[in-house]
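U., I forgot to send this yesterday:
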Amino acid sequence: MQELFKYLYENPEIEKLAGGDINDVFKVVDRDKEFTLKVNSKADFPLMFEKEKVGLELLNSTFATPEVYRVGEYENHQFLELQYLPKSAKNESFWSDFADKLAKTHKKSEITFGFHENNFIGSLVQINDQKATWSDFLIECRLNPMIEMAVNAGEVNYVEAKIIEKFYSRVNEIYPKEMPALLHGDLWGGNYLSAQEGPVLIDPAVYYGHREMDLGMMHLFGGFDSELFEVYHEIYPLEKDWKSRIQCNQLYPLLVHVNLFGRSYWEQVHNILQKFA
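Result:
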């Protein structure tokens, strides 16, 4: 492993892939095997790759994900070896296949909302305490921790943050009752691939939640064709007025962005919450 790390960081010909702000990501050719290697600080993000492995393998029951070869540590690093999947053009059935697999994923359920362990969304710890109701989970494990983090960091002041309390009081009337659904948890356009296998999911932040949360995230930054949502609705019909709840489902990822990238995202949060003030 020492030789591999030296090779990764000292060889100018190694292919470095996009990995965001957290990970160094490399395409490695080892004899006859190609694989993706993700590396980061084990002190800054403890067990991140163990949790990513759990998420990928859970999603793989309904959706293509890269095979996990190995998770390990070396000195102050942790690493994740994954199957390397070359990108390919989307075929005619790409979006309908995506919709079918996403519907099958969302049909996988548990008794409670949450997950058996916390994991990560970006570089932030994602709290997954299991709750009996969606309202309790959304407030206590998603929105309130992000609001508190933003206030403590000085990105949002205490008085303006109180605007979210009116939304909290209406969560039960806003959301239709549904069973907890298995979610990718961070399903934006950068977290899927078009490969020879068809649509492939990467970088999960899994938990069991209201399925409209994935759809809200998918609408936030774009990258998904309207055919996907049309086919999904045919396969697994959404509850009445689901489009009116899209922005509600974007509050959590927007608050994550407030805490990761600063106050510039608070305006979007505030504009959504004003509708409930």
